[in-house]
Amino acid sequence: MAGRFPRRALISVSDKTGLAELAAGLNELGFEIVSTGGTRAFLQQQGAKVIDIAEYTGFPEIMDGRVKTLHPKVHGAILGRPDVPHHAEAIAAHGIIPFELVVVNLYPFEATIAKPGCTTEDAIENIDIGGPSMVRSAAKNHEHVGIVTCPSQYPRVLTELKSGKLSHEFKRELAAAAFACTARYDRAIADYMAGMVGKLVAEEVPEGVTVDNEKFPRVLHLDFERRMPLRYGENPHQAAAFFVERNADATTLAAFEKLHGKELSYNNLLDLDSAMAIVREFEQPAAVVIKHNNPCGCAISDSLSSAFEKAYAGDPVSAFGGIFGLNRVVDAATAEQFCIPDRFVEAIIAPGFTDEAFQLLTTKPKWKNNVRLLRVPGWPSSSSASAASLDYRRVSGGLLVQTRDDVADPESEWKVVTNRQPTDAELRDLRFAWRLCKHVKSNAIVFAKDGAITGTGAGQMSRLDSSEIAAKKSADRCQGGVVASDAFFPFRDGIDQAAKAGILAAIQPGGSRNDPEVIAAANEHGMTMIFTGRRHFKH
C-alpha cells in the first residue's frame, strides 16, 4: 500500500490524551493525517500537519457534526482491500486513498449519563454514530488497517510503525479490542434506553412481589475487566482471578494498591472487602479483625491504636492469622500493636500508612516479608456508588441479584418495647452492635460493651446456638453489655441466654409472633430492648 498510496491515518477522538505525541510521531514517519472538527483543531494547535476530512471527501460536516465521516470515500478508504482487483478498481475510480491507520475513541456516553442532572437530550447527543461505524469497519478490515481505540495503545503503535509496519498479530489484537469497545458502548446505550421505556411489565411480576424497575433490567449484561490473577480460589486446587467494574468507585476494593507482601488469594479479597465495609460504618477511629468473612473482633475508640487493641482483645485466639481493617491512616503507635510477639497478621487494609508505620510493619515482626499491606485512597469517605450498586451471587444455571444492604436504619423508627429505657452508655453500645450485626453471617448474635465486640455467634442453624457461642466467647467480659440480633428472637431462650451472660440491653428487628413472650422475658431480667423494624440477614 505504501508504494501506491501516501501513508494515511484517520484520527477522530473525544479523549485527547496522548494525541499530540501520537500525531507528531506519525508525521515524522511520513503519515498524512486526516481528521475531523474538534480533533483537527486540537492537532493544528499542537503543530501537527492535518488534512480536514471535508477537504478529502469534498463534502462538508453538516447537522451540527452529526454527519461528517459517514461518507463512501471514508468507509471505502477503511474497508477497501487493495489486493482484490475489483476493490482496487473502485478505489481508483472514486479517488479513494486507503487509510493504513484509524484512530478513534467514542463520545463519552457513560460519563455523560453518570453526571447529576443529565437530560435525555444530553444523553442522546452523546450517542456516537460515525465513531463506532469507523471502528467496526476498520476492525473488520484489520488485515489491511490498524484500528486504535485507546490512548494506552499509542506507544506500541508508534514502536511497531517505526520498525516498518504493524504486525498481523498486533492488528488482530487491536481489532479484538475494538469490537470489545463497541460492544461495551452499545451495551451502555441499550441499558440506558431500556431504563427510559421501563424494563418490566406488570404482567411479568408475580402477585404480591414488588420490583424496583429502576434497578433490574429485563436482560442483565455485566461488564467487568480482569485486574489480576489470584494465588488460588477458595482452595489451592481452584484457579481464581479478580475482575473489577469499569469506572469503579475510588472508595471500593477495586481501587486498592498493594504496598507490600505476597500475592493475594480469593479468600483474602473476600475478607478484605468485609473489613472495609465494617470499619466504614463508623466515624470514630475503628478497627476490625476478620476471620472466614466474619468479625471476630471490632472496636471504636478515641485513637486508632486503642481501637485496634480493643478489637484484638475481642477474640485473641481467632485473631491469629486474621485480616485487619482500619478506617484511619495507620500510625506508628498502631503499628507497634501489630508487632507484639505471637501476633500473626495475614493482611492489613487502611486508607494509608505513615512512613514509620510502614517501616515497622515490613521490618520488625517475623511475618514481615509476607504481610499484605493494602491502601485504598478513597477512605474514610463512604462509597458514592454504594447505594445504587447491586449484589450478585451465582447459583447453578443463573444469577441472584439484589440491592445492597447499605441503607442506614433511621433511629426515629426504633422503639423501646420494654419497661426500662436504655441508659446513654447502653444506647451507644446498642448503636455500635447494630451497625456491626449486619456484617455477621446469619443467624447473627453480637455481644458488645464499651464500643467493642466481646463475643460473636455467626452462621449457626439456631439463634440459640449463636447466643451460646457469643456468651462463651465473651466469658465474663460482657457483664453489663448489650446484644444485637440480625433477625427477631423466635423464642425467649436467646434472651434468657443473654441475661445469664450478664447482658442488660438488646436490639433486634422484632416481628415474631412470639414477641410478647420475648419482651416479657426481657422485663423479667430487667433488660431494656429496642425493636428496629428492619432485618439484616447475611447468608
CATH architecture of the largest domain: 3-Layer(aba) Sandwich
Question: How many distinct helices?
Answer: 19
Subunit arrangement of the protein: single chain
Mean pLDDT over the residues: 88
How many domain regions? 3
How many distinct beta strands? 21
Name some characteristics of this structure.
single chain, six-stranded mixed beta sheet, Cytidine Deaminase, domain 2, 19 helices, 3 domains
What does this structure look like?
The chain has 539 residues and is of the alpha/beta class. It has three domains: 186 residues, Rossmann fold (3-Layer(aba) Sandwich), CATH 3.40.50; 152 residues, 3-Layer(aba) Sandwich (Cytidine Deaminase, domain 2); 121 residues, AICAR transformylase, duplication domain (Cytidine Deaminase, domain 2, 3-Layer(aba) Sandwich). It is 35% helix and 18% strand. It has 19 helices and 21 strands. The strands form five sheets. It has a six-stranded mixed sheet, with helices on both faces. Strands 16-21-20-19-17-18 form a six-stranded mixed sheet, sandwiched between helices. Strands 3-2-1-4-5 form a five-stranded parallel sheet, with helices on both faces. Strand 11, helix 14 and strand 12 form a beta-alpha-beta unit. Helix 8 packs antiparallel against helix 10, helix 12 runs parallel beside helix 14 and helix 17 packs parallel to helix 18. The chain starts with 7 loop residues before the first strand and ends in an 8-residue tail after the last strand. About 2% of the residues have low confidence.
